[in-house]
Design goal:
CATH superfamily of one domain: FdhE-like domain
Low-confidence stretches: 8-15, 262-279
Radius of gyration: 21 Å
Distance between the termini: 57 Å
Strand content: 5-15%
Structural class: alpha+beta
Number of helices: 13
Helix content: 25-40%
Pfam family, one: FdhE_central
CATH class of one domain: Alpha Beta
Protein name: FdhE protein
GO molecular function: ferric iron binding
Keywords: Cytoplasm
CATH architecture of one domain: Alpha-Beta Complex
GO biological process, one term: protein maturation
Order of helices and strands: HEHHHHHHHHEEEEHHEEHHE
C-alpha cells in the first residue's frame, strides 16, 4: 500500500541518482563568469550576437566581476558567519532556507561593499562616467547602504538608481556566495516552493542543463544571489511549475540563404541520417527562452551540451535581443538579472 512520505523521510532518501543541489565551489564562480562575459562581449559565442553598446556594458560588468572575485578571495571562513547547528536544524525541520535574505546581514557586509568599491578604482580611472556613481556609493552611510541593499534584494525598481544597483547587488552576491560555499549539502532542506533557492530563498536568474558526472543532462535553476543550483525537471515552468504549455524560443542568426540550405538538407532523402539529427554544439540551442502559456512568464535556459563554457548569469545578461523578442511576443520576464537594472520609467 502506498503512503505519503513525511518531510524527514523525503530528506533521508538517496539523492545521489539526481543530485538535488549544487552549492557554489569554494574557489567561487566569479573568475569563470568574468571570462565568459569577455568572450560574449567580443562576439565569440555563436548564437548570441552582441551590439557594440551592449558589448561595452559586458566589458564593464566583467571588470566588476573581477572585483567580486578579488573580494571573494580575501574572505575567511569566519567571515561567513553561518548559523549555529540549532538554527540549521530548525531550518531543516521547517523546510526553510538556512541563509535567508530576509535575515539581518552579517557584520562583514559593509566591509565587502567597501572592498568591492576599492577594487574598482582602476576601472573608474579608465571610465570617467563611472566616477560619480562610485563617489555616490562611497558617500553612503550605514543606514543608507542597508536601505539600498534592502531595495536591491526586494527588486524595488521604482526606488532604485539603475546605475548604482548593480554594484550593490554585486557585493551582496559576494557575501551570499561565500556563505553558501561553506555549507554542507545536508544543511540545506528541500523547500516546498521549488521555484526558490533552497539556500537563500532568492529567485533563479536562469536555468542550465549541466553535463558531466551525476548531473549529466539534468536541468538546474541558478540562484541570482548565491549561485547555488537546484534540480528541476526539464520542460516545466520555473515560475508556475506547470508543464502543459511550455515552448522554447531562440534567435536564429543565420542568413536567409543559410536557413534555406539547412531546410533543404533536412528534407533531402539522400542525406545521411546523422546529418539530419540535432548536432552537439548547436549555437541555436546554447540559450533559449522557456516560455509558459499558462502564466505567460519566461526564463532563459542555457545548455552545456551545446557550449561547455555557458555561465547562466553571464549568458542571460548578454542575450538581451532574446528578451526583447520574447517580451514583444507577450511574455513577462519572471525575474531580473542582478547586474542589469532599469528604472521604473524604462
Amino acid at each position: 500500500m502506498q503512503r505519503i512520505l513525511e518531510r524527514g523521510e523525503i530528506e533521508s532518501l538517496d539523492h545521489t541518482t539526481i543530485p538535488r543541489l549544487r552549492l557554489p565551489p569554494a574557489d567561487g564562480v566569479f573568475g569563470a563568469r568574468a571570462a565568459r562575459l569577455r568572450k560574449l562581449a567580443a562576439g565569440e559565442v555563436l548564437g548570441t550576437p552582441v551590439s557594440p553598446e551592449l558589448s561595452g556594458y559586458l566589458d564593464l560588468m566583467a571588470e566588476l566581476v573581477d572585483a567580486q572575485d578579488a573580494v571573494f578571495e580575501s574572505l575567511t571562513d569566519a567571515d561567513a558567519e553561518l548559523p549555529d547547528q540549532n538554527a540549521l536544524d530548525r531550518a531543516r525541520q521547517y523546510a526553510m532556507p538556512p541563509l535567508p535574505v530576509t535575515r539581518e546581514r552579517p557584520a562583514i557586509w559593509p566591509t565587502i561593499f567597501d572592498r568591492l568599491l576599492t577594487f574598482l578604482v582602476p576601472t573608474a580611472a579608465e571610465r570617467p562616467q563611472l566616477v560619480p556613481v562610485l563617489a555616490a556609493l562611497h558617500a553612503l552611510d550605514k543606514n543608507a547602504l542597508n536601505a539600498l541593499a534592502d531595495d536591491v534584494l526586494a527588486q524595488r525598481t521604482e526606488t532604485l538608481d539603475a546605475a548604482q544597483a548593480p554594484f550593490v547587488a554585486a557585493a551582496l552576491q559576494v557575501l551570499w556566495t561565500h556563505r553558501a560555499s561553506k555549507l554542507l549539502l545536508k544543511d540545506v532542506p528541500v523547500l516546498e516552493a521549488a521555484t526558490l533557492c533552497p539556500v537563500c530563498g532568492s529567485h533563479p536568474v536562469a536555468s542550465v542543463v549541466r553535463i558531466g558526472g551525476q548531473s549529466q543532462g539534468y536541468r538546474y535553476l541558478h540562484c541570482e544571489l548565491c549561485a547555488s543550483e537546484w534540480h528541476m525537471v526539464r520542460v516545466k515552468c520555473s515560475y508556475c511549475e506547470k508543464n502543459a504549455n511550455i515552448a522554447y524560443q531562440g534567435v536564429d542568426n543565420r542568413s536567409d540563404e543559410e536557413i534555406a540550405a539547412s531546410d533543404s538538407d533536412a528534407n533531402s532523402a539522400a542525406k545521411p541520417l546523422s546529418n539530419k539529427l540535432n548536432k552537439a554544439n548547436d549555437p541555436q540551442k546554447v540559450i533559449r527562452a522557456e516560455t509558459c502559456d499558462d502564466c505567460h512568464n519566461y526564463r532563459k535556459i542555457v545548455n552545456q551540451e551545446h557550449d561547455y563554457e555557458v555561465e547562466p548569469l553571464a549568458d542571460d545578461l548578454a542575450s538581451l535581443t532574446l528578451d526583447v523578442l520574447v517580451t514583444e511576443a507577450g511574455y513577462t520576464r519572471a525575474s531580473m538579472n542582478p547586474l542589469l537594472w532599469f528604472s521604473a520609467a524604462e
